[in-house]
Amino acid sequence: MDVTNFSSQPHWRHCYRNICTDNFVERKHSFPSPFTTSFKTHSRTKKITMSSEVVFNLEYLTRLEESARTLESTPQQRSEMMFKAQREVDAYLEQLSLDHPTGWVIPPKETQGQDKLVQPGQYQVQSGPNQVQSGPDRAQSGPDRVQSGPDQVQSGPDQVQSGRGPHETEPLPIQENGVSIDEVLRDFSRIGNEMEREGHPGHMAYVPGNSTAPAAIGDFLAASFNPYSLNVASCRRAVKMQQMIVQWVGRLFGYPSACAGNLTSGGTVATMVAMTTARDHKVPRSKDYSRSVLYLSELTHDGVAKCLSTLGMREAVVRKVPVDDKYRMDVNILRKFIENDVQNNLLPFLVVATTGTTDVGSVDPVPAIRAVATQYNMWLHVDACYGGFFVLCNSAKHLFEGVETADSIAVDPHKGLYAPFGTGLVLVRNGTLLRNSNTRQHGNYMQDQLTNPEDWNPEDLTFEQSAHFRAPRVLLPLQLYGVATFRDALQEKLELAKYLYLRLKGQAHIQVVEPVLSTVLFRIPGVSDNTNRALLREITTDGRFFITTTTVKGVLYLRVIIFCYRTHRQDVDVFINKVKDAVVKMELPEVEFCHAG
C-alpha cells in the first residue's frame, strides 16, 4: 500500500479488517497468523521502503474486548454504585456537624449557660429592612463525644499544624486487577477523617469552600454525559449553559452584553486569563516586560503576583500600595507611585483593586482607582473572588460601585455560590480583547469540523482546551433553589458578622474591627503576639471551631470568617461563649473593653 497516495486507497483500516476476517474464515481459527504488508514512503531526494510483519490473533482480540467491556456498566451496576456512594456521603455529612472542622471530635458537655445567651433585642441586631430579629434565643449544645487524640490537626501557638493521626492510612494502591466497589468506597471515605472539613459550621478560617447536593449531581451529570463543552460544533447546548452563567454574572456587576468570559478552575486562573488580556493589550512587545509595572495593595491576594511568572513577566515591577485606616488601597499613594514610575521611564500597565480582601474583607475604592487607571492608560482588574457574590445582597451593593467600569473581573462561584472547589469565573468588559488573546488555530485533524466565525467558543476565551464541563455544578443549584436562596444565605453571613462584632465589642479585654463583609478581626490589645496566640489556642483547643490569625498593618489579629452556609446563629453563640471563657481563663487584669473600627 502506497501511503503517499493515501487518498486514492480505500480506508486502510477497513481493508485490513476485511483481510483479517477473510483469513479467519479460511484458516478456521488457526492463529496466530502473520500478514505482511509493505508500507512505502517517498521524499524528493530518495525513496524509502519499509517492511513490517504484523501479527494478528483474533482470540487475543476477543479476550481484550471482554475485559474492556467491563468499563461499560449496566443500569443495575450504576444504580448499585450510586446507592453505595450516596450512603458514604450521607454518613460523612451526618458526622460533619459532630466533629471538629479539622478532625477533632467535639468533647463532652459542650453546653451553653442561659446567662451567657444574648437576649432578644439586646444589641438591636437586625436581619433585614423589616428589622426582624436574627435567630433563636437559645444556642444548641454539642454532642457527647470524646477527643480523638493528640495527634489530630490542632491550632498551635504559632500556626496551624497538621499532625498524622493514628487513623491515617495510605490510599488504596493502583493494582493490576480491580477490587469491589465496597472496598473502593470504604477506602475513599477515610478521606473524611483526614481533611479540613470546610463545610463544617465551625470552620471559620481562610475562605472555606462549600458544596451543595445539586452541585454534586451537576458534576455527576457532567462526567456521565461528558460533552466537549468548549466548542459549539461539539455541543452547542453545553456552550450555551456556560455562556448563560457568564452573562448572568456580568449583569450582576453591570457589564454590557459585549462582555465575554469563561468558567475556570479557580480565581488564580481567572486572574491569569484577565492579566494575559491586559498584557496583550497594554504591553504588546515582550521587550517592554521588564519596565512594566503592576500595582497591588498590601492586602491583595498573593495569587495575583504569582500570575506574572506564568505569563512570562517575571521581570515586571510589582508595587505594593499601603492601605488606609479602613484597610483600603490608598489612592493618593498609588498616584504618587505611578507618577514616580512614569518619570523613571517605566510603563504602568495594570492595577488590581479588591472587593473583599482575604485578610479583612475590606473593599478598595474602585471609582477612584478607575480614575487613576484612566488617566495613565492602565488596565483595571477587580479581584472579587471572595466578596464578589455579595453583590446579590441589597445591603452590600454600594460596595461594588465602579466595578462595572473595570476592564476585567475575577470571581469564584466555589465561594459565594457554594460550588465545589475548582470553579472560578473571569469576565472581560470588552469581550473582543479576550478573544484576541486566546483564539485557537485548529490543527489539520479538525479541518472538517463545521465552524461559524460568529460563534464565540469557550476554547477561544481561555488557554484551556480540555476543561471539565463546569457549568452544571453552578447552574443546577441556581435553577433548583433560585437566586433568592443564595442571596438570603449570603445576607445571613453579613448579619452574623455584624452580630459577632457587636457581641465581642462589649466584651472586656477584646478589641474588634468592624466588618465590611463577613470577616471579623479581634485581639487582646496591649499584650504580646504570643498572648493573642494563646487566646487562639484556648478557643480552638477543644476542637469545636477552626480559626487562624492574620497580620494586618503590622498587627496580629485573630481572624474569623463566617462563610459556610451551614453556619448559623447558634454556632456563633457557641463561639462567642468560647471567646469569653478563654479570656476569663487567661486571668487578664481588669480593664475597660475597647474596640476599633
List its salient traits:
seven-stranded mixed β-sheet, 16 helices, globular, 14% strand, disordered N terminus, alpha/beta, 597 residues
Question: What is the strand arrangement across the widest sheet?
Answer: 5-11-10-9-8-6-7
Major sheet description: 7 strands, mixed
Q: How many individual helices? A: 16
User: Which secondary-structure class do the elements indicate?
Assistant: alpha/beta
Shape call: globular
Give the tally of β-strands: 15
Rg result: 30 Å
Query: Helical amount among residues, as a percent range?
Result: 25-40%
Mean pLDDT: 82
Strand content: 5-15%
Termini Cα gap: 82 Å
Uncertain parts: 1-49, 107-163
